[in-house]
Amino acid sequence: MINQSPTCNDTPDGYINAQDAGILPNTDKDLSQAILSLLKESNTSHKGIYFPAGTYLFASDVLLTSYNSLLGSIEGTIFRCLNPKGQSVMFGDSTYRTKVSNINIENIIFDNIRIHFYGHKSAIRISHNVFINTITEYSTAQLTCSSHFYTINGNVFMRGRNYAGVGLSTYGNSSGLLIEQNFLGSVDEINLATPWLDKKTQILLTTLLSLRDKKLISFDDAQGEFVSGWYSTSNLKKGIFRKNFISGSDQIFLYNPKTDKDDIQRDHGIYIKQYEQVEVIQNYFSGWPKDDKPSGQLKFRNAKGLVFAGNYLNHISFNARPYDNVDDKWLIMQDTFIFNNYLSDALISYWQ
Question: Among candidates 301, 231, 233, which has minimal Cα distance to 267?
Fold first, then answer.
């Protein structure tokens, strides 16, 4: 059984224990309103909130303010949308002008819950969480981090047959974005992914499978229904995308539960444009449709200053070129360095 009643001594330094504030797991109650006073206390005291192992239910979005760090237990802390068949609940702040800073979100399994930060947000780290069973529009990501730089490392992104969509989305990020050692793939690829993952992510995946065995969470083995793995649609500067494992389905269309048909169009494994000085190094890429289809490939466009090196491309190709549907200053594809990549049933295509 998961421990539901840790003592105060189990609370990490710098955190408030959610249970001490009456936020209890495994109660079948919506905690969306009950957590608000605790978030306010967290903001005032500059302390994060620790959630001991168990399942916490949320029926509506939860707005995070500065210092609202969220920490789960390594034994398994699950945040679950109260309506498992409804659109996902959002944690974060999507209002551009609202300033939010100094947040760490770590060790939480988000079951049909997504994270979204947009606008004036800073000093935010999202690490070693799981995103699964996420019901969104098909262009919406499980994790969205926009406008400033973030550290995004060691997370697990999974999308099953009924949950097609995007894994990770960044937009307009300033210098310093780091996306490292994240896992986007299926259960049967966990062992294959080991060289790309840190020990903590490997433990997180073991915990996730253990919780499934105990029937505390439900998901299929096949979890590659990504419309796209990573969107970065403009103005990324001096970012690093390193040692991530991305493996998607090779189907041209994904299943749509609304129509009961395979009619969701795929997009690229990576889609990144209008960037400057980006390093994409030592990643594993696999899956997506054959390269003669418009939805295949890793797509880099209208940019300068890319280093693409040390990557493993398995049944997915690199494609870099400019398009003319942008401002004149972005009619470029220059200073691109491609070297030391391993290609298996893959191609490198570059045009300026």
Answer: 231
Radius of gyration of the chain (CA): 20
User: Cβ of 218: how many Cβ atoms within 10 Å?
Assistant: 12
pLDDT at 234: 85
Q: What is the mean pLDDT of the chain?
A: 93
Region of 242 please: left (phi>0), alpha (psi -120 to 50) or beta. beta
Q: Is 49 helix (H, G, I), strand (E, B) or coil?
A: strand
CA distances from 304 to 79, 211, 236, 241 (A): 40, 45, 11, 16
| pLDDT tens digits along 184-218 | 999 999 999 999 999 999 999 999 999 999 999 99
For 222, phi and psi rounded to 5 degrees? -80, 115
pTM over 0.85: yes
Residues in contact with 285: Cβ distance below 8 Å, sequence separation at least 6, in sequence order: 246, 247, 269, 270, 298, 311, 312, 313, 314, 316
The stretches in the chain having pLDDT less than 50 are 1-8
The predicted-structure confidence for 147-177, as pLDDT tens digits, reads as follows 889 999 999 999 999 999 999 999 888 789 9
Secondary structure of 142-205 in HEC code, one letter for each residue? EEEEECCCEEEECCEECECCCCCEEEEEEECCCCCCEEECCEECCHHHCCCCHHHCCHHHHHHH
Structure confidence at residue 7 (pLDDT):
42
Q: How many CA atoms lie within 13 A of 96 on its CB side?
A: 3
Q: Report CA torsion sign: 200, 201, 202, 207.
A: positive
Number of Cβ within a 10 Å radius of residue 350: 14
CA distance 205 to 192: 13
